[in-house]
# Entry
Amino acid sequence: MRWDVVIGLEVHLQLATASKIFSGASTHFGAAPNTQACAVDLAMPGMLPVLNEQAVRYAVMFGLGIGAEIGMRSVFDRKNYFYPDSPKGYQISQFQEPVVGRGSFEITLEDGTVRHIGITRAHLEEDAGKSLHEDFHGQTGIDLNRAGTPLLEIVTDPDLRSAEEAVAYLKTLHSLVTYLGISDGNMAEGSMRCDVNLSLRPAGSQELGTRTEIKNVNSFRFVEKAIHHEIERQADILENGGRVIQETRLYDADRDETRAMRSKEVANDYRYFPEPDLLPVIIDEAFVDSIRATLPELPRERRQRFVDIYGLSHYDATVLSANRALADYYEAVVSDCGDPKIAANWVQGELLGQLNRSELALADSPVSAPALAGLIRRILDNSISGKIAKQVFEAMWAGEGDADRIIEARGLQQVSDSGALETMVDEVISANPEQLAQYLAADEAKRKKLLGFFVGQVMKVSKGQANPQMVNELLARKLS
Amino acid sequence: MHTQTVAELARQLREKQFSSVELTRSYLDRIQALDGVLNSFVTIDESGALAAAAAADARLAKGDTAPLLGIPLAHKDIFCTRGLRSSCGSRMLDNFVPPYDATVVARLRTAGTVMLGKTNMDEFAMGSSNETSFYGPSQNPWDTSRVPGGSSGGSAAAVAAMLAPMATGTDTGGSIRQPAAFCGITGLKPTYGRVSRLGMVAFASSLDQAGPMARNAEDCALLLNAIAGVDPLDSTSAEEPVPDFTATLERPLAGLRIGLPREYFGSGLDDATGTRIHAALALLEQQGATLVDVSLPHTGLSIPTYYIIAPAEASTNLSRFDGVRYGYRCENPADLHDLYTRSREEGFGDEVKRRILVGTYALSAGYYDAYYKKAQQVRRLIRQDFVDCFREVDIIAGPTTPGPAFALGAKTSDPLSMYLEDVYTLAVNLAGLPGMSVPAGFSNGLPVGLQLIGGHFDEARLLNVAHQLQQASDWHLQQPDIKRPK
# Structure
């Protein structure tokens, strides 16, 4: 039987504020346990939350970035549950009146298909702390450094139809939020965590099947794997005449499987009610306008500009604009070397290739944008060929200095001295009398092919440093 | 010294008739002598008090004239005090020493007051008699077989017995006004948002408000001056200008319109108490005020409304007391569930548990609309009653309580009759208005309180009316005869 897959995603995005959403404690990642938890974060008696305005600004930026309705009045609620890493015994969240309402999101799949994904809402809430079950000899340690870190929970409509679409959505979302600068987007540190709601229905059916929710999947790859696994699991159940149970499941990356959480953990009545310690958040048009005025260029706009101004293909423009840092790098190379197409080839080819092979982030690249531009300038002014340039790039990557220094030190300068080239051409012609005879006997069409042999021989003799255009001209003259 | 008012003590301190250390010593001696009977303090901070008094004396010596400089006071144990146990009347916080001061406490430290100690209270401020305290009930100085009222009963008893010239209290449904009435002192619950709630252990966040308790209106004005005003760390505190509350005390009452709500003088009111209230109102009339018959039609709904909203908020406010980070933790918990259930089972008293249960129920899925949401709708009606009333009158007056202080133990087995004690005070909290209790004579030797209710942020008017009443009467000057322990 064929099944249609229906997926909705909830992404918990950590906002890049310096301090927490309701306290002045730092949100910096990686500090010693409980050193970044103040009396408010520890839920000491009598402590009260004070809303961090920057978190609201970031949420509004996101809303504007996806063209969503902005909640001019939003309300915080208490979501009540007991857990040791939730120190108040409730989480402050937004339930009925979120800060960002309905919006939509455009994603482009690898085959170029464009899909529109509905955004149901996005709301502000506080993160929980962490329970540490290892290293405590049967006891549990609590680290409240993360407690109170601002989160924007972004909820999609059930519009996604495959793991590929889900990943494309997440990548596009990641691109948007890092462009906006509202999150560092650091998946490894949990800055973007995803819950997957998934159900199957017979192909073509309009009715939704029973869904499961897979909690806390923390990388693009795990999302993909968890979805594949869950599709298979549900299809197995349905094809064997069973029924999918609505439940919350956990993805175990080590075993590549999802498994049900204990029903006790999910059968919660959260007893939401408006948080009486905070006033409703009222924002006005002037506030929204002031944020709109500071919005940076968004990925879609930048991609279009790359096509329009630099003449890049849609594909190249998409790759180069997806990540703000990469796009900035690319544009720095272009402005320095003046050739957008060669720059695009080098950034996508050599640079990204080396970064992938070395598992480095762009920020850690040993070759800076000005350095790469310096190399490209040497190609453009015929100092070196493209082939030699790749050698030079390897050396730059290895830390041997800038392009000019390496070209100089290794003597890679292209030979454009006509006297020297003429000597090489004469040597090659006299060393290959057989081919010369063939050439002279051949007709016009065949001669072209045979000329290539002589060019190749000259390049070999010059160790690739001969100016190919000049070699062609010289040979054509000598052999005519 | 102890019979003097705050205003008089402050003047004499400035005139060097005695030092703050001498004054503080005399109050500590009185506490030592009398509090064995009254149990109005749960913590006495002798060394801290004497150090603060010495510091105040140093400031006085330099000619500092801060109005409350060197004046001793007591804080209700609901306020967090840095380095001094803040128990909130509960076993749950019996071992809790906060590393911070409540804003109210911090402002009064800055003002140069001298904290004598922390006063007894109903556990987590849940009660009208002080009998739910983990430390046993405080007693009424006018008759030690009777309750001082609650929840700020320890503060009321301490001020009435002159163990402190003034004290802080908090009022969620009458917890300043009712004990003030029972103990014959003056107490003011300010407008919601007038005083910061930071560092006050939360009972019901949308109703809680701190306020002054003293022997007369002028002293309440002095104390309110020191604690009122917006606090950036309490989002619900109001950015409302704070007047000098002592500046308008002498304003004549001519032309003042006082509304008497029919519903406050109905069948539930004890006859003798009603007589005392009318006599006090007659004094105000003599000073030129006009008494106007008004109606607050939704008064009867304030008890059910309050007993949904307050427990609902309390049920989640008290979730943080889980035995994990501070406070009471049960012995040898078997697992997390056991840690939660036994710590809370053993750490909370019955009344607190009752309200957590009621509140949890009211917020539960399927009941939320019928209870919490409905109660919030009725709350708006109750508030509207007052808004309508204040179109016709300047203040509203009536009894603070249906009758005088009742006997210890009389209502402990009947929570509903205990809740009815608050029938005249609850609506004021639900509407967020300022309310005051002022001594209005005695019924069978027990004090009766006149309640004054004002428009939002109109505390100055209440204090003015109370002060004028006290210029024309001597009920607030009466002193109880406390039997010393053998």
